[in-house]
Design goal:
Number of strands: 7
Strand order of the largest sheet: 3-4-5-6-7
Distance between the termini: 97 Å
Number of domains: 2
Shape: elongated
Radius of gyration: 30 Å
Order of helices and strands: HHHHHHHHHHHHHEEHEEEHEHE
């Protein structure tokens, strides 16, 4: 096979011209052509670049297999070494000729283990378009995916290399940390609503944006923190979750402290019984809205009821903290609160099935709080209240320990879940 080995020290325009002539003559011999053309491109030959661009641009509307194979080989080499120059032309051809695009993806995936530096040469929108194209034109085999992150679970078959190309492009998009990359990832998540792992990647893209755009607290903010002990920095959803738990501890004090408000959660007739779950949720939401107002430095906190898929208005709560500093990149972090009364039939399973499975995984959030109102007490003895028989035979402390342990088990590097049991029992008379 012809080779340029040993010619590098004396490489010049004349040698490049001879090499290009040899490559052109070998177009019908794929391995020889690729070897010669690769050498030309690596040596920075402008003549070879012009030849390659003409080869791609001149590809007929209905090319023969040989014509398409030659153009794909040229495109794959040019993308790898001269990305910024050739990508607009290559991308147009991929959109015009689906078979060309698929063959090029296969060619690029055959060599996925090499340095994927060419991806860094694509603009954010170009990278997002490519990722969406790969997911649409070369769709994943859902039954061969890890249900949590969508990655391939089989090492067998030619589809493995394509899987690695998809993942490499997707990972690069998530890591960009730019608004355009978040938009691109959002388009992919919207195009595949039945694939929760894309919403998970959207969360990752947003986290990358916050990480890249983060600025240290200004002197004014630091002074505000030192002069107002109640002020808090909220840089991500995890810090917002901690802030919500601090607020709920103050809510607990309001309920059970001197002249506590816990009786507002009960219908006190001759035989007291708790008000319903939605009323409990509304009281919690009202407290958070009032208590968290102005507490987060340079963020506006909003508390509202959360609408679940197909469920309309629910008793669950979404807390968001949005940047109000116009000198910084706007961003928002959120915490989902799943509210339950201690009599709920799904009390022991809703943290996994609803909070994590529906709100976090399906709807693209990463931090959640499982909030339980614990009403079980001696004053609640009305056996005509069917809810009473559904309450587990635990003490409040046992309930708190159980739910905290469950939250620890369900949390991982992607999702943070905490539990909080509110003492809503009537005091002894």
């Amino acid at each position: 096979m012809p080779t340029a080995q040993g010619l590098e020290p004396i490489w010049d325009v004349k040698i490049a011209r001879i090499h290009l002539s040899a490559a052109t003559a070998a177009r019908g011999q794929a391995k020889i052509f690729r070897s010669l053309f690769k050498t030309l491109i690596r040596q920075g030959s402008d003549r070879a670049l012009d030849y390659g661009l003409q080869c791609i641009a001149a590809l007929p509307h209905c090319p023969t297999n040989a014509e398409r194979d030659n153009a794909v080989a040229v495109a794959a080499l040019l993308v790898g070494y001269r990305t910024a120059v050739v990508w607009p032309l290559v991308w147009r051809r991929m959109q015009q000729d689906a078979e060309f695009g698929r063959a090029l993806a296969v060619a690029l995936s055959d060599d996925w283990r090499r340095d994927e530096g060419w991806l860094s040469q694509l603009a954010d929108l170009e990278l997002g378009d490519l990722s969406l194209w790969l997911e649409t034109r070369l769709p994943r085999e859902k039954d061969k995916r890890n249900s949590s992150d969508g990655r391939a679970v089989s090492w067998l078959g030619s589809s493995w290399d394509l899987d690695q190309l998809r993942e490499t492009v997707l990972d690069a998009l998530v890591a960009r940390g730019t608004p355009a990359a978040v938009v691109g990832m959002g388009r992919i998540a919207a195009a595949f609503p039945d694939y929760p792992w894309f919403r998970l990647r959207l969360v990752g893209a947003r986290e990358s944006l916050r990480r890249v755009s983060w600025l240290p607290p200004s002197p004014a903010e630091l002074l505000g923190l030192t002069s107002h002990s109640e002020k808090r920095l909220v840089r991500d959803a995890s810090e917002l979750l901690s802030l919500v738990i601090e607020s709920l501890k103050r809510f607990q004090d309001r309920l059970t402290g001197w002249n506590g408000l816990v009786r507002a959660l009960w219908n006190e007739n001759e035989r007291p019984r708790p008000k319903d779950e939605n009323f409990f949720s509304d009281v919690v939401r009202d407290h958070l809205q009032r208590d968290l107002k102005g507490i987060a430095v340079q963020r506006e906190v909003e508390v509202r009821n959360l609408k679940g898929k197909g469920r309309g208005k629910s008793g669950d709560i979404l807390v968001t903290a949005t940047s109000i500093d116009l000198t910084r990149m706007a961003d928002s972090v959120a915490v989902v609160i799943e509210c339950k009364g201690c009599w709920h039939k799904a009390l022991e399973t809703a943290m996994a099935d609803q909070l994590k499975g529906q709100y976090l995984i399906d709807e693209g959030h990463c931090c959640g709080l499982y909030l339980v109102g614990w009403f079980k007490c001696d004053a609640w003895d009305d056996t005509s209240d069917t809810r009473l028989s559904k309450v587990p035979r635990w003490t409040l402390e046992e309930a708190a320990n159980r739910f905290n342990a469950q939250a620890d088990t369900l949390s991982d590097s992607t999702y943070e879940i905490r539990a909080f049991v509110v003492d809503t029992r009537l005091p002894p008379t």
